[in-house]
Amino acid sequence: MSDMDLLLWARGPGLQIALAIFIAGMLLKLFEIFSLGRKKDLSVPRPGNAAAGWKTVFSRSLPNRVLLKRTFPTYIMGYTFHIGFFVALLFFAPHIQLFRKTVGLGWPALPSQLVDGVSLLAIVALLLMLAYRLTHPVKRFLSTFDDYASWALTLAPLLSGYLAFHHLLLPYTLMLALHILSVELLLVFMPFTKLFHTVSLFISRWYNGDALGHRGARL
Amino acid sequence: MSAAALLHEIAALLDSLDRMGQGGSVQLNGLPLLPGDYEALQEALGEGELSAELQALGPTQIRETALHGVWWLTHRNSAGEVVAESIEVTRCPDILQTPAEDVSESAQHLRERLLIACETGDRHG
Amino acid sequence: MADENSLGAILRAQGVSRRGFLKFCGAMAALMALPPSMVPAIAAALGKAQRPSVIWLSFQECTGCTESLSRSHTPTLEALIFDAISLDYHHTLQAASGEAAEAARATAMKQFFGKYLLVVDGSIPLKDGGVYSTIAGMSNLDMLQEAAKGAAAIVAVGTCAAFGGIPHANPNPTGAVAVSDIIKNKPIINVSGCPPIPVVITGVLAHYLTFGTLPELDDLGRPKAFYGESIHDRCYRRPFYDQGKFAKTFDDEGARNGWCLFELGCKGPTTFNACATTKWNQGTSFPIESGHGCLGCSEPNFWDAGSFYQALSVPITPLGKAAAIAAAAGIAGGAAIAMHNRHVKAGAKSGHQTVTVNDLEKQPGEAR
User: Fold this and answer.
1) B57–C contact, CB cutoff 8 A
2) Rounded CA gap, C198 and C172, in Å?
3) C17 touches chain B (CB under 8 A)
4) Domain segments of chain C: what residues?
5) Residue C106 pLDDT > 60, yes or no?
6) Are strands C116-121 and C151-157 parallel, antiparallel or unpaired?
7) Of A50, B10, B75, C358, which is the most exposed, with the fewest CB atoms less than 10 Å away?
8) What is the value of ipTM here, to two decimals?
């Protein structure tokens, strides 16, 4: 199979398969979560906290003062990675073309050199996070296969995309094929690893906010 | 590739010619020159005092640029199209010099002509 | 130039001076993308090289490759290369036709067995015994296999011969394949492109004539001298790509400013050819310089690689159906899971045993 054959498979059947597994998997998991639900809290709710769930969905995107001080490295690396990842995914012109074709929506792009710089920061943040996880005794103790696998699945598209853009390491056709395949791998495993947090985090925030608001607390 | 980069390469070859008597050449066709680079290079090198034209398989122009030792060669076919173009850093381009075998042949040829002329002259006179 | 039958001797016999010969070697070096320092080696090699026989077979093709080659030439220099070879068979260019032509081919193949250069353009149809393309009643497949037996090397000119080309594109009704899919025991040079750049064809022939060997080839069998770099790597619009300045339509501000054509479907990044440096029509221009994205015509399966006007980052197969089926499966499966969970929860609820304070009081000696 030549490099071009691999690229055409990745842009064709590969994407169809990955997307199908992703959609089916995500729906199954969502049904599972919502159908299990939470135990109903029969106590009288504290007043004035009816929208606590919704508020928490947004408020937790901002740093928490106490945790920021205690776990600063995690916070700074986490923000750097997530922001960089989304800028690379959503504001790089070739990606916007992809969305325009598949979802029907387009929007203005950022200069490619800016996206390039931000992606590099995201990659560095990911590498530092792994180093931190491996050297911090508690983190290492708590880490499972899922943690390391999810990390690798996230790094692969960023790194392969960066290498492809700069024409490094492998001939471009192969590098681009690997980049697209790494994204497909990410899609396939997203419903079944902790990467599911991309969707479940909003659900968790709502439930936690709602439960705490019910009792008059807020976090 | 840009005109500036080429000039640096030519400078290096000139240095080499100066110190070690060994120049070199740069092929111009096939380089990804940006629009305007070709003219910029011509302007930078300028025209020198010596220009020669070779008629073999079409015209070839051999010019020394304003920089001594830097020659610009343009090979054209009989339809006037450029088939090869290069910059040679040398004291004299190879193609300008008379090939050694041609000298031997000419010497022999002229000898024969003079011999025939002599014989003819003798007969008449 | 010692040998009287060598190419060098032939040129001298045609009245080409020694300086002319040097000029010829310089042009050959340029053709083969070799540096001028190679000229002495080329001169020495031409002094010894014999005049090879070339048999050109045209199969399932549009004749564009032959047109590309002959269209660009009245020049004496390149014509000399064709004088330097003995083109013993070319059914478009030759004067003879019919049985006389086939007889000429058979004679050349027998006389120069093991030594002739076989040039092929066009793909070879295999379906239904190869009836979809025949010459003089002989299928292309049979003709290729017969001619390949005595060939020293094979040059597959054009994307059709190199990779199958347009006949090979979906749904490939004639079962078209490339030369390399059929011949496995001879050296093959793939000179791909639709058509290939003329000087690339002559450059490859020149290399074989001069050195009698194949030039260095990439993993698709293409000469690295001409196919070693992608269009993107040598494109003069690259700075615009790097900055993210893309033309959105063929006539907008960006297009008129010469911005990158990525969004208009340019396949430059994944295409390997000499278009950006050697260019077309004796270095006049190439598609991107004229404002149209690269089609990727020197790559295998370029006809099936997604629209010529959609970016490389876009999928080439429709996703709607797969997504809809997956969604349906997910919802159906999810509903099943939900019902199961409800059943389990209901069962847990009904099986739940309520306790009172009395139940909780421990009796002396009772285990809990």
Assistant:
1) yes
2) 27
3) yes
4) 1-50, 52-226, 229-339
5) yes
6) parallel
7) C358
8) 0.84
